[in-house]
Structure formats: structure tokens, C-alpha cells
Design brief:
Structural class: mainly alpha
Mean pLDDT: 90
Strand content: under 5%
CATH class of one domain: Mainly Alpha
CATH superfamily of one domain: Tetratricopeptide repeat domain
Pfam family, one: TPR_12
CATH architecture of one domain: Alpha Horseshoe
Low-confidence stretches: 1-33
InterPro entries: TPR-like_helical_dom_sf (IPR011990), TPR_rpt (IPR019734)
CATH topology of one domain: Serine Threonine Protein Phosphatase 5, Tetratricopeptide repeat
Helix content: over 70%
Protein name: Tetratricopeptide repeat protein
Radius of gyration: 31 Å
Keywords: Signal, TPR repeat
Largest sheet: none
Length: 571
């Protein structure tokens, strides 16, 4: 379900000033259920009104959303002020109290007969509450309020009726009533097509888009909408033909093709989307968005030459040059051409990737085999960027860890922690290096220090649980840490793997297998494969264990945990 707050944002504008505190001389006519005639005319009505408004504001300031909503809605019994009703509606919506919000919105709509925002909000909430009669009433009033601009009113109605999948049928039937009243208007059928598409009623969306085009041939928006339907139906060629039929200047037609490419990206049709960006560039070779989109997709598709060409052309033309250099470097790094990657990373002079490019340039030196030069570059960056020192220490620690220089990594982390005591990232990094040195108690202490700073950090919880699982017999204690980590991050493959491994250590083989199968499906890491294979081996499923190991070996033949496991268990 779409976030109701975003749906109501337009109708709840910030112009709601402080609500009037006076009592009306009489209740609102028309039987408004939120105004109690006796309450409004009671001698203490003014006191009650002020009490509930102030209590509501007090609750707002303290984050007590339900109490705020309840008090503001109760205040509506004593006042017919439309601003008060609007504020009560907004507060109830933000409190995620739909019934209270609907009560307030009904009052707002009744007290503001000329306010389209009130009707939009009330209609949205009526849809959410599946109140067909009130939805029809508010939609009719909304359309009447904007009768001089029916096309704009129909587009507004699409937004009002969107975002409630459980009420899709009611939303579409409500739109159908308006389409019937404007059957000769292309915009009405376009609106129905758009709403149907949002609710994944593709056949209905296609039919309505076709009807809109019959009434207004060549209408670009309707053509694009129909193309979007065809893309969702998997008929990309038909969608392309539709778009190719559009007239206009070359720049306008290029924009249609770019929009088509974005549709394809949204549908995970990346190869077709890259071709669509190329198609747009045939009409407008200077279009920056099309060339950049092509480059990014080519990177995703591992079409390196295509990506390199796109980003080099952008860089040479001075278009998004920093971004182009960064992604051109990424293409080279992905192909393990580290010297070329470093050359392009160093061309990134500014923008959002500037600092990361410097870090990656230093890393390229390490990957070229010059750890000393990489460390020297990181030290220079630390000197020039003291506010980013922690991140740079971490980058150096990661290089030392990868280089298996664990003593040097610990010494570096020691220096870093003297300057930044209690930094949880540095503590975590040092714990990894300490573990590899066999200094298990010290590694565990670092993780406990990290948890003292951030008690619910799933990374540290998982690391401590995994450490205790592997290096101690305190498996029940380890289970507690891993359970807390998994509660925080239930879909994290590393934590799922840890849970499987501790269950194995506890002797729960079937439960261990279940977790490890899940972890392996999500992330076939060689260490996960080692764990899963060992559990399968102990369960007597040895052919399956060998298969899991062999698949992992084909990708990472030198992985130490994987090889140790295989050597230990197989003859």
C-alpha cells in the first residue's frame, strides 16, 4: 500500500495557521457527525475546545501521535472551524489513524464547501475505508469544484484513486462513472488507462489508451502510456513501433525514446533499455541523459567497450565529466586493468564521487602490487582531510587485512583508536585482524566495546556470535548474539549463515541445514558453501555436499576455509 502521507500531501498544505479557539454560535448544518449540538452550545464548550486543542498540541510536541489525533478530533465537537478540521485531519493521518482521519476529513469537507483539497482528502480516506457512498459524494463534489477544467480534474482524480491495492475494484468503478459522463473526452479514457495501469489491470489500461487515441490520434502522452502497457505485457517490439509512429522535431522524438528506455529500466529490461538509449542518440547525439544512461546500463550488462565509449565521449565533451571519469574508471577496474582505472579515478576533480575516487585510486596501487605506495597515498589523504580520518584509517586497515599483514593492521588500528577512541568501525576492523592472529579474547573484547557504544548493531552482534561459535564452546551465548542480529536483519545472508553454523555446533543438524540452504541461496559465498557442505556431509548427503563444494571451488579455488573443510572431511 502506498504511503498515505504522500497521497495526502497535496491536500494538507502547510498554510494551516493556528486554529481559531472561539465557539460557533450554532452547530454546522447538515448533520455533521463531528459536531455535537449540545456540546457546542454547552456553557463550558469554550473550555472544552481549548482543553482538547492544547492537549492535542502537547501530544504533538511529545510525539504521542494517537493522543494528538484523538484530542483534535474530539475538539471538532465544539467548533465548526474548517482550519481546525484540516489540522485534525493532518494530525490523524500522520498518526496513522485512518478512522480518526476520516472523521476529521468529513468535517473538513463539510465545513469548507469550496475547498477542493478538503474533498480530495476526504475522497482518499473514503476509498481507504471502502465507503462507497461517501467516496461517490466527495468525487462528485471534487469534479464539480473543478468543472471548468475537466481534464485537470480527471488527472487529480487519478491521484485521489491511486495507491490502495485492496480497493482497486472500487477505485476503478468510481473512475468508470466519471468516464461515462465524459465519454467523448480523450482525457477521460487516458485517466482510466493510467489508473488501470497503476493497479496492474493491463488489459483494461490498453483498451482505454486505445480509446483515448481514437478520440485524439497521435496524442503523445497517450501513445507513451500505451507503450508502457505493452512493455508491462512483454511486447517490447510493439511498444517501440508505437513510439516510432510519433511525429515531431528530432529533439522531441528523442525525448520519447528516452522515456521508453526508462520504462524498460523500470521493467528490468536492461538490454532493451540500452538499445533504446542508442535509438534516442540516433536522433540527438548530443543528449547527455541518453548517453549517460547508455553508459550505466552497459556497465550493468558488462558491455565494457560500449560503456567505455559512452563515458569517454561524455568526458571529452565536458558533460558530467566527473561522473563520466568515475564510471569509466569503474569499467577498467571491473576488467582488472588497474593502471587504467587509477588514471581515470584521478581525473575525478569534484562531485559526489570525488573522495571515493581518491580512495579507489589508492586501492588500485595496492592491486597493482604496491602496498607501500597505496598506504602512503592514504596517509596523504588523511593529512589533507582530517575530518575523514576514520574512513581513511579503515581503508588502510582493509588493505592490510587483504594483504594478510594482520600484525600491521592491528598496529594501525591501535594508532587510529588512540585518536578516535570508541569508534565502532575501527573496533570492528581491529577485531577481525585480532581473530586472524588467534587473539580471540582481545577480538571478543573489541566487539563488546563496540556493542557498549551501539548495543543493537547487527554487524557486531553477528561477528561476536560467529567468533564465539568458531573459537569457543560457548555456543549458547553465541546463539543469543546471533538471534539478536537476525531479529534486526532477518534477510542478511551472513547472519543467516551464522545462525546455521551455530545450530550445527549445537548439534541441530536439520535446523542448521535449513538456515545454511537459505544463506547459500541468497549469497553463494565460498565460506557459506563450506558450512553447508559440512552439514550435508554429516547428514549423509555426501554427493550434494561435493556438488556444493565443487561449484564454490570453480569460482574461488584458493579459499582457505573451503579448502580446509574439504581436506578435513574427505579421504
Amino acid at each position: 500500500m502506498r504511503n498515505l502521507f504522500s497521497l495526502l500531501a497535496a491536500g494538507l498544505a502547510a498554510g494551516l495557521a493556528a486554529c481559531a479557539m472561539q465557539v460557533p454560535p450554532a452547530p454546522v448544518p447538515g448533520g455533521d457527525p463531528n459536531v455535537d449540538a449540545d456540546a457546542a452550545q454547552a456553557p463550558n464548550a469554550s473550555v472544552e475546545l481549548q482543553y482538547h486543542v492544547l492537549a492535542g498540541e502537547w501530544a504533538v510536541q511529545r510525539g504521542q501521535r494517537r493522543a494528538a489525533a484523538e484530542n483534535y478530533v474530539e475538539a471538532l465537537r465544539y467548533s465548526d472551524d474548517p482550519a481546525l478540521a484540516a489540522r485534525a485531519t493532518r494530525i490523524a493521518v500522520f498518526a496513522n489513524e485512518p478512522e480518526l482521519a476520516f472523521r476529521a476529513a468529513r468535517a473538513w469537507a463539510q465545513r469548507s464547501p469550496d475547498d477542493a483539497n478538503a474533498y480530495k482528502t476526504a475522497a482518499r480516506l473514503a476509498l481507504q475505508q471502502a465507503d462507497e457512498d461517501l467516496l461517490d459524494r466527495y468525487v462528485q463534489r471534487l469534479m464539480a469544484a473543478e468543472s471548468e477544467q475537466p481534464e485537470a480534474a480527471l488527472r487529480t482524480l487519478v491521484e485521489v484513486l491511486s495507491g490502495e491495492p485492496a480497493q482497486a475494484d472500487l477505485a476503478l468503478s468510481t473512475m468508470d462513472e466519471q468516464v461515462a459522463e465524459h465519454d467523448d473526452l480523450a482525457a477521460a479514457h487516458y485517466a482510466r488507462a493510467l489508473l488501470a495501469l497503476r493497479y496492474e489491470r493491463l488489459e483494461a489500461a490498453g483498451e482505454s489508451a486505445t480509446r483515448a487515441l481514437a478520440l485524439r490520434p497521435g496524442w503523445g502522452e497517450a501513445v507513451m502510456l500505451h507503450a508502457g502497457v505493452l512493455v508491462r505485457q512483454g511486447d517490447i517490439d510493439a511498444a517501440r513501433t508505437r513510439i516510432d509512429s510519433l511525429d515531431g522535431a528530432s529533439g522531441e522524438r528523442a525525448e520519447y525514446r528516452i522515456a521508453f528506455a526508462r520504462m524498460l529500466v523500470d521493467s528490468d529490461e536492461n538490454a532493451a533499455a540500452a538499445d533504446a538509449f542508442d535509438w534516442a542518440l540516433e536522433l540527438d547525439p548530443e543528449d547527455i541523459d541518453a548517453r549517460f544512461g547508455l553508459g550505466v546500463l552497459a556497465l550493468t550488462l558488462e558491455q565494457w567497450q560500449r560503456a567505455e565509449q559512452a563515458f569517454e565521449q561524455l568526458y571529452e565533451a565536458g558533460n558530467r565529466a566527473d561522473d563520466a571519469a568515475y564510471y569509466r574508471a569503474s569499467a577498467a577496474e571491473s576488467q582488472e586493468d588497474y593502471a587504467e582505472a587509477r588514471r581515470w579515478y584521478r581525473r575525478v576533480a569534484g562531485g559526489s564521487h570525488a573522495f571515493d575516487a581518491k580512495l579507489r585510486a589508492a586501492r588500485m596501487l595496492y592491486l597493482e602490487g604496491d602496498l607501500a605506495a597505496a598506504r602512503a597515498e592514504l596517509r596523504t589523504l588523511r593529512r589533507d582531510n582530517p575530518d575523514l580520518a576514520e574512513r581513511l584509517f579503515l581503508a588502510e586497515g582493509e588493505l592490510l587485512y587483504e594483504a594478510r599483514r594482520f600484525d600491521d593492521a592491528v598496529a594501525m588500528y591501535d594508532r587510529a583508536l588512540k585518536r578516535h577512541p570508541g569508534d565502532t568501525d575501527l573496533l570492528y576492523g581491529r577485531s577481525l585482524a585480532l581473530e586472524r592472529l588467534g587473539r580471540i579474547d582481545e577480538a571478543a573484547e573489541d566487539l563488546r566495546l563496540s556493542l557498549a557504544e551501539e548495543p543493537d548493531d547487527p554487524r557486531a552482534l553477528n561477528a561476536l556470535g560467529y567468533l564465539l561459535t568458531n573459537h569457543t564452546d560457548r555456543h549458547q551465548e553465541a546463539l543469543g548474539y546471533i538471534e539478536r542480529a537476525l531479529e534486526a536483519e532477518p534477510d542478511d545472508a551472513a547472519i543467516i549463515d551464522s545462525m546455521g553454523w551455530v545450530q550445527y555446533r549445537l548439534g541441530n543438524l536439520e535446523k542448521a541445514r535449513e538456515y545454511l540452504e537459505r544463506a547459500h541461496d541468497r549469497f553463494p559465498d565460498p565460506e557459506v558453501a563450506a558450512h553447508l557442505g559440512e552439514v550435508l556431509w554429516q547428514l549423509g548427503k555426501r554427493d550434494r555436499a561435493r556438488q556444493v563444494w565443487q561449484e564454490a571451488l570453480s569460482e574461488t579455488p584458493d579459499h582457505p576455509v573451503l579448502n580446509e573443510t574439504i581436506e578435513r572431511l574427505t579421504p
